[in-house]
Each structure stands twice: as structure tokens, then as C-alpha cells.
Write a structure and sequence with these properties.
6 helices, globular
Length: 153
């Protein structure tokens, strides 16, 4: 079974936000397999957001939706895969990455590759006490969370 078939088999049809949780200590072949998909746009969030931050006014930094609207207006595919999202957790930016992806998914189907963990209905990034630590409860109506370690290759 292909990775894509398995991912979508586990996701309700009306779900627009899929979060693939990867343990950042392990190298998963999932991303390489996803790159082979047709009709999907890939957004390297770290690269794109860094470019935008270099050329933006300070007021726009407080509105992450502005950046994503600018990035996404160049894509015509309905499906988008976001990866390298670590910059969103920088404490200086004060973003809520989960809320950002929920807003984007209101307009299109997205897959987000999340380097972190999912346990007890909480999606986390980094370790408690670190400046980039993030943890938030996720309702199954908001997003489908899939741990890549549970996907057959």
C-alpha cells in the first residue's frame, strides 16, 4: 500500500488538515515518498518565511497569515504539503503554528509534517522548558493526526 493511500485511508473525507507527526530523532522515508506525488505543492516554511521576514516591516511579523497568504497565492494546486516548519516555533515570533495551519486548511487540503510528538490528544514541539516549546490539545474534528512511525512503508 502506498503511503498516500494509507494516509488517506485513516483520514475522514471531510478533513482538510492532516498532520504527520515525525519523531525528529528518526529519519522517516515518508517525506521522500510524498515528494513523488503529482499535483501537490510543497512549501518549505523555513525558507519561505525567512525570505519574507528579511523583507518585511515589523508590523507584518505579528500577522503570520499575511505571510502564508503571500506564499499560497503562487500555488494553484488544491493540496499543499508544509515541511521544515521549525521557524514557526521561534519564541520571538509568538506564532501559534497549529492555529496557522487550521486557518489555511479552511481553504484547501493540507498536510503538515510536524517534527514533534502527539500523546494524550496533545500535539507538542520541543521539550518543556525550552524557549521554542509548544503544546496544544487537538480535537479530531480540527485535524487528523498520524504518527509516521505507525505508517507502513
Amino acid at each position: 500500500m502506498t503511503v498516500l493511500k494509507q494516509i488517506f485511508k485513516e483520514v475522514p473525507e471531510d478533513t482538510n488538515l492532516i498532520i504527520l507527526v515525525e519523531d525528529s530523532k528518526k529519519n522517516s522515508p515518508i517525506f521522500d515518498e510524498l515528494k513523488e506525488l503529482p499535483d501537490v505543492n510543497f512549501v518549505n516554511v523555513g525558507l519561505e518565511l525567512s525570505r519574507k521576514l528579511m523583507h518585511s516591516r515589523i508590523e507584518t511579523i505579528t500577522n503570520p497569515q499575511y505571510f502564508f497568504d503571500e506564499i499560497l497565492k503562487n500555488f494553484n494546486q488544491e493540496r499543499v504539503i508544509f515541511y521544515n516548519i521549525d521557524i514557526l516555533f521561534d519564541s520571538n515570533l509568538e506564532f501559534n503554528p497549529l492555529d496557522i495551519f487550521k486557518k489555511i486548511s479552511a481553504q484547501r487540503k493540507i498536510i503538515c509534517i510536524w517534527n514533534g510528538s502527539f500523546s494524550d490528544n496533545k500535539l507538542s514541539y520541543s521539550k518543556f522548558g525550552h524557549s521554542d516549546y509548544f503544546s496544544q490539545s487537538v480535537d479530531s474534528k480540527e485535524a487528523s493526526i498520524i504518527k509516521t512511525e505507525e505508517i507502513e512503508s
